[in-house]
Amino acid sequence: MTAGVGGQITGRGFDLGIIDDPYKNWVDAMSPVYRNMVWQWWQSTFRTRAEPGASIIILMTRWHHEDLVSRLLAQDAEGTGENWRVIEMPALAKEDDHLGRDEGQPLWPERYDEEALEVMKRTFSEEVWLSLYQQTPLSESKVGRVYKGFTTKSVKEDINFDPFKPLCVSMDFNVNPMAWVYFQVDESWSRFSVLTGQANLVINVLGELCYPDSSTPEMCQVLLEKLMDFRKMTGQMDLQVNVYGDAAGFQRATVGVGASRTDYEIIRVFFAQRQGYDVRMNVPRANPAIRDRVNSMNQMLCNAAGGRNLFVDQSCVSLIKDFEKVKYKKDAGGNTTGLVDKTSDPSLTHLSDALGYGVWSIAGIKQGASEEGGLAQ
Q: Does residue 214 sit in the same domain as residue 65?
């Protein structure tokens, strides 16, 4: 017989019980409510149906360090539970591989050889690669931090403006504070990027603008002062400025009650009235899923292969603080949830949100994005 997690199996016993993927995806695995439900189902329903001498097999992706398998193995280690035999078959062999493979050898080379897996490893975020492909759930310190790909290796002493590349500005329209980030993108091709059909992109963050109780016209004026210095470096050619940001900028509420123009209209008109700036809007009509935006940032900060494609100038003090301090919320039981904590410290999340909109638009994970239509030109 078969039944889903939480399904009815009372009144029936088994000599062989198989649990196959009790968490169907990351959302289930990150939910402390769902994890506890699975645990209660195991204790009160599934395990009680085992006949004397029965065997139990659990097959699952190791999304979370407090999943069903983790709890059972913890009991085993403490001597309070049953003895379990763990069989791991990671995509790339680890030390002491159960199949006798050499470390780094692929599991099914006829389908995915080592080169193909290395491409995946460079493409996916660390947690996706480790969980789905290597059966290694992340530790609490990694799960709690939102931007776990960030380390001091992501900070550079001096990131210089390249006058031959466009300047990108990405915006968050929270009024207190309003936060904008400006950066440039380097593009190159390698044998790995040729295989994926995507250029290798490196994002270099030059600076941040973060002002409390500010308005869009005021931010435009501050940005203009920065752009004037950059334009001088271009030999007085028009400076191309690519604008990214929060879709909320299409709403009039962020620029004041009764305002006749949206934030992005204000920006467009402001720079249209000034010579020397070629401003191009690249803003989605709907924001990406928060999870996609965060994954995109982590993938650029440090992919599963250890590659770093997002660097921040040391002058971006508030953005660096975001990367180090922004965490996921915890529930009443102290379990990490999948929701970003925006209330414990009101000074956090604004600049990382601003940059995240641009990173997602340029180099992001798109599968969970809103289905509403494309970019505003």
A: no
- Triad 137, 141, 142: Cα angle to 5°: 50
Strands 167-172, 239-245: pairing kind: parallel
Q: Are residues 26 and 123 in the same domain?
A: yes
Q: Which domain holds residue 93?
A: 14-143
Task: Report the distance separating Cα 49 and Cα 350, nearest Å.
Answer: 51
CATH of the domain at 332: 3.30.420.280
Alpha-helical runs (H) found in 89-168: 114-123, 126-128, 140-144
The DSSP bridge partners found for residue 310 are 203
* 223 and 329 share one domain: yes
Phi-psi region of 22 (alpha: psi -120 to 50; beta: other; left: phi over 0): alpha
Residue by residue, pLDDT tens for the chain (377 residues) are 677 786 777 677 899 999 999 998 877 887 888 889 999 999 988 999 999 999 999 999 988 888 999 999 989 888 888 999 999 899 999 888 889 999 899 999 999 999 999 888 878 877 788 888 998 886 644 557 899 889 889 999 989 999 999 999 999 988 788 999 999 999 987 776 677 677 789 999 999 999 988 889 999 999 999 999 999 898 878 999 999 999 988 876 555 544 678 899 999 999 999 999 999 999 988 999 888 899 899 989 988 778 899 999 999 999 999 999 998 887 776 666 778 888 888 889 999 999 999 999 998 765 443 323 333 33
The count of structural domains within the chain is: 2
